[in-house]
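Supplementary notes (optional reading)

For those who missed the lab, this is the record we used. Protein: GDP-perosamine synthase. Length: 386 residues.
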Amino acid sequence: MFDVEGFIRFVRGLYGQPEGVIPLHAPVMGALEKARVAEAIDSTYVSSVGAFVNRFEEAVAAFVGVRHAVATVNGTAALHVALRVAGVQPGDLVVTQALTFVATANAITYCGAAPVFVDVEEETLGMDPRALEAWLRQHATVRQGVCVERGSGRPVRACVPMHTLGHPARIEAIAEVCAEWGLVLVEDAAEAIGSLRQGRHAGTFGRLGVFSFNGNKVITTGGGGVIVTDDEALARRARHLTTTAKRPHAWAFEHDEVGYNYRLPNLNAAFGVAQMERLTALLASKREVAGAYARAAQRDGWHFVHEPAGARSNYWLNALRLPDVAARDVFLRATNAAGVMTRPLWTPMHRLPMYADCRRDALEVTERLAGTVVNVPSSPLPGRGG
Ligand SMILES: *Cc1c(COP(=O)(O)O)cnc(C)c1O
């Protein structure tokens, strides 16, 4: 039997909070953010142009090690536009994982494409490169350099793995399968700022990668996202599409296609510039928290989800695995009743009504993880983060 009372005592001790609600993940913010936002107000540029947008993009690009970063209103918009510039068109199929936040599948759907759900791995919680390859072998073929579904002839255009809870997927193996089959790799690295695979930042293995800066992520801009790429033409097109496809002109409104109003406002970018200054300290504190969970798990026999071999995780949300669904539900009820916020993983996409009829494989690992993994309080420790 899992000792839920012992777990609650441990978390309250970790955060030095004997009573009150302990959130799943609280943003760290203060004087630094106030100062940067005040600067933005004083500059009179508060909306979707301004120096802080450039500064934020440069800071993110330098941190993850890419040439170009394009800031957007949120991570979902970033994914939508990344898929558009990756060439995803109405009628296409896009392979992704069923174990993800709904934004991944929604962004594919916004393009008029249909998601295909393949299984994840026990160890990484991310897309299983063998499941990707198996689905392609069974259902697809390459015709004149284009991967198409046999029978329907629909292009299988792209692949969107997700770095679950900040743990890097086996992205180098996924990239190999994508290269062999001609799929464009777009990484949903929304949860993975600060996560590395083989020393390289998550989100930089694909043609494009996407990060989210929603309020519950490692750092936040209130709401925000970024598209990263080393490809200058793709970055330019992403910038164009997110600014209503307006052609540069001193006064005229000329738009050369149907674009989106998706650029990050300068106010949010100012907040983000402050958050980037804290990022290294926040990541260090998140590792402290993960280390404390790992030690407690070893002592008390909990199944803690460690970073995968060959990877460094940002430990965005720490996770435990419980023996079965019943034990998980007992844990969720008791912890939340005691003010210690815990959450199950997302309902897998194929069990949501709008995605129930999509193509998929057996999703055995997805089902097992979805029924047994819980997220536990993971904020940086009080006083950390600059
Ligand atoms: C947070 C998140 C997104 C983007 O979410 P926004 O709230 O739109 O910034 C996309 N995919 C995953 C997996 C996420 O966790």
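If you only remember one thing from this example: The chain is about 40% helix and 15% strand.
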